[in-house]
């Protein structure tokens, strides 16, 4: 038996709390159908008896306050919404309890951007963490001591689980169920809740947004130029001349500000442009590849797959919608 504490964090999303409660409770039903004992005791716990969620849109009545939970086996940290800085401040009261539970052996299951709260406790320092691609830049600026994993959906390290964006937390819950009860029960939960199992990467969903939270005017100008010219064959020396910087200085500052080399940034802008064309036009893949400045189809296919985990053809099959 494992005791599950789903934290009713202030400004958490109601769906992440309820989904966790429903899935883990339903697993108990699956076990009973097989003539086995229930495995989970699932409770929603909070700082107060009643907690506002989702920017005040909802209110949940908890089963217990954290002061009445001396020990738990698994603490689930739900998604947060709204202003992260405000959410972290309003949930400070959970930190000591969560650290104490982890030090007593509890597993910590962090759903998507709930990782902002977990990171604020220091428990992720020096450890890996997955986070939604759209929250990457903000997370890195707030918690530089955390090792951010960009490609995988799930991380599992020292009893701490994290997951990347949105509803991928359902995959994390399946993953945890498998660790506790085995593959058979996880597959059964996948089928009953109709969740694709073993989804490992968020790359097919990622939208490239260049890091622009810096004040280097020359680099911002270069980024803007690259993004406005996705179909051009760009020359790095010409960009250096345009922003009046030597190549070594330019490349060093560009990498520091954006986290990408100039060449990688150009590639990612071209891939993003190609994705839009694959989603919305009937142009052939060869035409799209030539339009973004590549004359070698195989070379572009490798670049495209590097950033999306899909070939251009697979991407079109997944996302193209024919006009009515």
From TrEMBL:
<dbReference type="InterPro" id="IPR018060">
    <property type="entry name" value="HTH_AraC"/>
</dbReference>
<dbReference type="InterPro" id="IPR002818">
    <property type="entry name" value="DJ-1/PfpI"/>
</dbReference>
<keyword id="KW-0804">Transcription</keyword>
<dbReference type="Pfam" id="PF01965">
    <property type="entry name" value="DJ-1_PfpI"/>
</dbReference>
<dbReference type="InterPro" id="IPR009057">
    <property type="entry name" value="Homeodomain-like_sf"/>
</dbReference>
<keyword id="KW-0238">DNA-binding</keyword>
<feature type="domain" description="HTH araC/xylS-type">
    <location>
        <begin position="220"/>
        <end position="318"/>
    </location>
</feature>
<dbReference type="InterPro" id="IPR029062">
    <property type="entry name" value="Class_I_gatase-like"/>
</dbReference>
<keyword id="KW-0805">Transcription regulation</keyword>
<dbReference type="Pfam" id="PF12833">
    <property type="entry name" value="HTH_18"/>
</dbReference>
<protein>
    <submittedName>
        <fullName>Transcriptional regulator GlxA family with amidase domain</fullName>
    </submittedName>
</protein>
